[in-house]
Design brief:
The protein has 344 residues and is α/β, with parallel strands linked by helices. It has 11 helices and 12 strands.
Length: 344
């Protein structure tokens, strides 16, 4: 790479809980000498995903090369947050060989791709590829499928309803912009379910895009990096539900933080979270919890009523062992009821 070559950037997008952070961590741990940097964006005030990545301890991507942009969606804050963060990485004494950008689960990737044409960065970076991570098990369970009968009833009552469910639009926009689709959590599906989901994804994709099955985001790095898509110059082949809109917002979603006490063990908390997820329209839960008598903090992540937990690192000396969970769901979540049920 000459000093005048553009630095390639990979945008990792995908719906809430699809496994984006797990995939990015896999890339960092298998960099094979590449000097990497990461920009991670979250919908909410707590940088949980950034914390997960910083705990990797990977030499090729030190903590100061992981930039967190919280409390805002990159597709809404390009000028204020994203461009300055990208320039900061490029201006480092030893700039990265490759930059990985993890969007929030509610982000539309196309506005971010467009930002690479901004004069301040256009000559210095290129979008190597847009990688869309799909929660295959969730799609197989019909998480994003609209009920045709319900849509018909709604349209009968309100003729102004001429667009799809907002969640469906976010999911489809992420597929419409993809250069590569990762069908994650393939181990949670049968062969027939995998085939059906791949078929459904194929109906949405506007062009030939490879779909790769994966478990826990484990995909060869050579498959993920080096796509050479130049996506910022290929916008016409990446249609979006929002192409005619000047801006968009996320008013269809609620997000808030729950502060938690310590727990005797993980199972009590997980059972409470499952009950809450079944009783309320919660899309995503993620955060850290203190377990009595354990030197390490418990990382908790959930999609719908499916939860995973593991001890990820020791609590640092002097660090407040305060449990905090980010809750994301559709608009109208009953925050008081959810906090009461989870905290007990």
């Amino acid at each position: 790479m000459t000093s005048f070559a553009k630095v390639p950037c990979t945008i990792v997008t995908g719906f809430l809980g699809a496994g984006k952070t797990t995939l990015v961590r896999h890339v960092l741990e298998n960099a094979h000498g590449r000097r990497l940097a990461v920009i991670v964006n979250e919908f909410g005030d707590v940088g949980i995903d950034g914390e997960i990545l910083k705990s990797c301890g990977v030499e090729s991507c030190p903590e100061d090369a992981i930039v967190e942009l919280a409390n805002g969606c990159l597709c809404c804050t390009v000028a204020d947050d994203f461009v300055p963060a990208l320039k900061g990485l490029l201006d480092r004494p030893s700039p990265p060989d490759h930059i990985v950008i993890e969007t929030s689960g509610l982000a539309l990737p196309k506005p971010l791709v467009k930002a690479f044409n901004w004069p301040e960065i256009a000559s210095r970076v290129t979008v190597d590829g847009v990688v869309t991570v799909v929660d295959g098990a969730a799609v197989a369970a019909g998480r994003f499928a609209d009920d045709p009968d319900a849509i018909a009833r709604q349209r009968a009552n309100d003729r102004s309803l001429d667009h799809d469910n907002p969640l469906e639009e976010v999911f489809e926009d992420q597929l419409l912009c993809a250069d590569l689709v990762i069908l994650n959590k393939a181990d949670l599906m049968s062969v027939e379910q995998r085939q059906a989901v791949v078929g459904e994804i194929g109906k949405t994709l506007p062009r030939a895009v490879k779909v790769v099955e994966a478990e826990n985001g484990r995909v060869p790095v050579a498959v993920l990096l080096g796509l050479g898509a130049g996506a910022e110059a290929d916008l016409a082949r990446r249609p979006s539900h929002h192409d005619a809109e000047g801006e968009h917002d996320h008013d269809d979603f609620d997000t808030f933080i729950i502060d938690l006490p310590s727990f005797d063990g993980p199972q009590v908390l997980i059972e409470r979270l499952r009950k809450v997820a079944m009783a309320h329209d919660i899309l995503r839960v993620k955060g850290f919890v203190d377990i009595d008598g354990k030197p390490m903090r418990l990382l908790v992540q959930g999609v719908g009523a499916r939860f995973q937990h593991q001890f990820d690192r020791r609590w640092a000396a002097g660090e407040a062992r305060q449990g905090r969970l980010v809750v994301i769901g559709e608009r109208g979540l009953d925050r008081a009821a959810i906090e009461a049920l989870v905290a007990g």
